[in-house]
Specification:
Largest sheet of chain B: 9 strands, mixed
Largest sheet of chain A: 6 strands, antiparallel
Radius of gyration of chain A: 22 Å
Strand content of chain A: 35-45%
Oligomer: heterodimer
Number of strands of chain B: 27
Shape of chain A: extended
Number of helices of chain B: 10
Largest interface: A-B, 99 and 140 residues
Chain lengths: 204, 586
């Protein structure tokens, strides 16, 4: 059983890997800034508190966690239990689902364009569940896109979460449709030795 | 007029005929005959397609896509056979370029997703793919470029205009999303103009922006894995990397045309490189009651996006075919309880200080310069934590004639302006909750104990960044020297781990004794610099000695680490109370 929280940015976890990446970057700053290097040197677990923690965009106060029941196998139905949370006022939200590649991941029953999720309140937040049945058609990683909508006094707030479904093979039931035809972006090296991704310009 | 001035400044690094003897020989765009061996010019415009959102932010309006100049980007002329770089230029404010080669050469034009300028002002912005060449350092990941088809220079000058297109076919992105990196680059160009208006010699630290069609709202377990795979969860700024990461997966969440989102994240870059942020970062949703440092940082970043783009409607599009979205109107929207802990309150106040529209208490305008001056001076150096209080205290001191106006804006958002100081000492808005006020508790470094409580009442997700999860202390050191900081948990009462239990032993990583006890942690900060930290995993206490503390004002942030740890059991109490002492050391 795979149990995954799709809440964004558990800052502590994310930041644990940052020092590894810092070593890759060279940017001597000439402008006034706060140096927190002395703090990172002594941290063990509490990196979330550092003033230099990552800072994300504003988002709607709704989230989803999910459980994929069983191991997804191509050609076999797999079931997801999704738990939605409204941390604003606990009211119901609306949800819509979309397979990023319908040839690779399809619904057993086409879900409604937009379905209400009835919430029950827990500690001032609303929680609601929904079950969804999918049929992976091809092995590999495929995404289920979940769009959540919340009506508020400020208007409609929305939030998208993509859920990866990692599909193992079951040879006989595979559909051998080609992958979605999105142009590949080849990495090249230019004459200066720099890696580039070249895309075509349209001439007017 | 001033905007025009700074716009010209931003492309001042573009090649001029005066500093290029080759260029001076042919600068027109008309066909001119050329002798064999003489240089010939190819010139024209480089542009990208910008897809605006619908006015109510209900998705991207592809039918209204417009051509915009790729301002300030590097344009190369490259030999199509040898790949040799022949000539280079920077696109002007209107996207014009001019490049030269000898006649009859087979060439192509390349536009690089970068802004480069040395001197004063200076900047260095790249747009790269974080999900390619993942065995290399981030700064070496591939840069996006668009290339023209190859063509022959011929014997005469010629005009060629190139466009980076969206790749949208009416239903999906079936083509190359070539416009994306240039749309991102142009938003950065736009926001830098606002800073250059008030600081024409600004030195912008190098900035890498990472965007990929693989960047999705799925979040990997670690940042490293997420960056390499695209499972980044959301768009964000990482201070340690001085980099932005932007979502790009279609039908999920794409940012290349969400100009406010890009500008918001750039606002965080500004904080770190021109001012200061003490934000703990982490998840934050609209309407939540946040740690005051987070509330100010996020409120600033969103307000800045409105100022820099001269558009008060923050818009973030998402969903299938990018047909959904939500907006924040900086003039009108309020969400959740008003106050110093609400990012929307902060952004509304800051935006109203800048804008010239009269509404409600917003009867005046300071413009950007006074806000900038405070951010790069007092806010960067305040002895308090950087918050709306430290900012407004300095703003009022610098602009006493606007104090009444500022106070009325603060009052509109339930912040007590009269008598305000950098520590919020006069604040009376307690968010109708315990363990919120006073914002700072004074502590004397003579061993006198202070008791205070932290509370996770506004945090349902172990984010550890909501209002009352951190508590603050303020301390004046008059005698330089060593001091012993001691924190002990008074409640919740829980049995200590078994004798000999070592929480630092990796073998005990999964032991419940690591998660079920109170774990107080603290940082000692002097004018934004962390000078000591007590962050052990010891249950119920923290003892740290800070040596050689100079005299001066200090602040302490105190956190119950259980609130920031996803391993904390659900029945862990909402409130933790501590006794804190600071005593002279040996």
């Amino acid at each position: 059983m795979i149990n995954v929280s799709a809440n964004i940015l558990a800052a502590g976890l994310l930041l644990l890997s940052v020092p590894v990446l810092v070593a890759c970057q060279e940017s001597e700053l000439t402008n006034p800034r706060v140096d927190v290097a002395s703090a990172t040197a002594t941290d063990n677990h509490d990196l979330a508190e550092l003033p230099s923690a990552i800072r994300g965009k504003p988002s709607a106060p709704i989230s989803v966690e999910y459980v994929i029941e069983g191991t997804p196998v191509a050609g076999q139905t797999v079931e997801l239990e999704l738990t939605f949370t409204n941390s604003h006022d606990g009211s119901s939200i609306y949800v819509s689902y979309r397979s990023a590649d319908a040839d690779a991941l399809s619904f057993v029953t086409t879900p409604a364009e937009k379905m209400p999720i009835i919430m029950h309140k827990e500690n001032g937040r609303g929680k609601g569940k929904h079950r969804l049945r999918l049929v992976p058609r091809k092995e590999g990683r495929h995404y289920l896109n979940v769009l959540m909508e919340l009506e508020t006094e400020m208007g409609q707030l929305v939030k998208s979460t993509s859920i990866p479904i990692d599909v193992a093979s079951l040879g006989a039931q595979l559909q051998n449709k080609p992958d979605r035809q999105t142009p590949q972006r080849d990495v090249q090296v230019d004459s200066e030795g720099e890696a580039i991704i070249s895309m075509p310009a349209r001439e007017e | 007029m001033f905007l025009l001035f700074t716009s010209l400044l931003l492309v001042a690094c573009g090649k001029s005929d005066d500093d290029d003897p080759v260029a001076s020989s042919s600068s027109t765009m008309s066909d001119q005959g050329s002798e064999a061996g003489d240089p010939v010019t190819v010139s024209g415009k480089v542009r990208y397609e910008l897809v605006p959102p619908f006015p109510n932010c209900s998705g991207l309006d592809y039918a209204s896509a417009e051509l915009r100049p790729i301002r300030g980007a590097t344009v190369h002329l490259i030999d199509a056979n040898s790949s040799e770089l022949i000539d280079s230029d920077l696109a002007t404010e209107s996207g014009d370029y001019a490049l030269q080669s000898t006649a009859q050469r087979e060439v192509f034009v390349r536009v690089r997703a970068e802004l480069k300028q040395v001197g004063s002002p200076a900047w260095d912005v790249d747009v790269r793919d974080n999900t390619s060449n993942t065995n290399t350092s981030l700064g070496s990941r591939p840069l996006y470029v668009v290339d023209s088809n190859s063509f022959t220079m011929g014997d005469s000058d010629q005009v060629r205009n190139f466009t980076a297109a969206t790749g949208w076919d009416g239903a999906s992105y079936s083509g190359y999303r070539a416009a994306a990196p240039f749309a991102i680059l142009d938003t950065v160009y736009e926001v830098m103009l606002l800073v250059l208006e008030v600081d024409p010699a600004a030195q912008f630290a190098p900035l890498d922006i990472f965007w990929s069609t693989n960047n999705s709202t799925f979040r990997a377990a670690s940042l490293n894995t997420g960056i390499n795979s695209g499972a980044i969860g959301t768009s964000f700024y990482v201070p340690q990397l001085n980099s932005l990461f932007l979502l790009g997966m279609e039908d999920d969440d794409t940012e290349e045309f969400d100009r406010h989102v890009i500008a918001h994240e750039w606002g965080h870059y500004f904080e770190d490189n021109f001012s200061r942020s003490d934000s703990a970062g982490g998840p934050h949703s609209l309407g939540q009651r946040l740690d005051m440092r987070l509330a100010f940082s996020e409120g600033w970043a969103t307000a800045f996006s409105g100022m820099a783009l001269n558009n008060p409607r923050f818009c973030d599009t998402v969903g299938s075919q990018q047909r959904m979205g939500f907006g924040i109107h900086m003039e009108y929207d309020q969400f959740g309880p008003s106050g110093w802990f609400n990012e929307i309150s902060v952004l509304s106040i800051l935006y109203d200080l800048w804008d010239t529209q009269v509404d409600g208490a917003d009867v005046s305008s300071l413009g950007f310069q006074p806000l900038f001056d405070v951010l790069v001076n007092e806010q960067a150096e305040t002895s308090a934590f950087a918050s709306v209080f430290s900012f407004m205290k300095a703003l009022k001191a610098r602009n006493p004639e606007q104090a009444t106006f500022i106070d009325s804006l603060l009052a509109q958002h339930s912040i007590n302006g009269p008598g305000l100081d950098a520590y919020g000492s006069n604040e009376t808005n307690d968010a109708s909750a315990p363990d919120v006020l006073p914002i700072y508790t004074d502590i004397i470094p003579d061993g006198t104990p202070v008791t205070l409580c932290a509370n996770s009442q506004f945090d349902g997700g172990y984010s550890g960044n909501k209002l009352s999860e951190y508590r603050y202390l303020r301390m004046l050191v008059t005698n330089p020297g060593s001091y012993i900081f001691s924190i002990s948990t008074q409640s919740p009462a829980s049995p200590l781990p078994p004798p000999g239990f070592d929480c630092t032993d990796p073998a005990n990583a999964g032991d419940p004794n690591n998660f079920q006890h109170s774990d107080p942690d603290f940082l000692l900060v002097r004018r934004g610099q962390v000078v000591a930290a007590g962050q052990s995993c010891t249950a119920n206490s923290e003892v740290t000695t800070a040596d050689d503390l100079p005299a001066g004002d200090y602040v302490i942030s105190l956190l119950e680490f259980r609130y920031a740890d996803g391993n904390t059991p659900p029945d862990f109490p909402e409130q933790s109370c501590f006794e804190v002492t600071v005593s002279p050391g040996a």
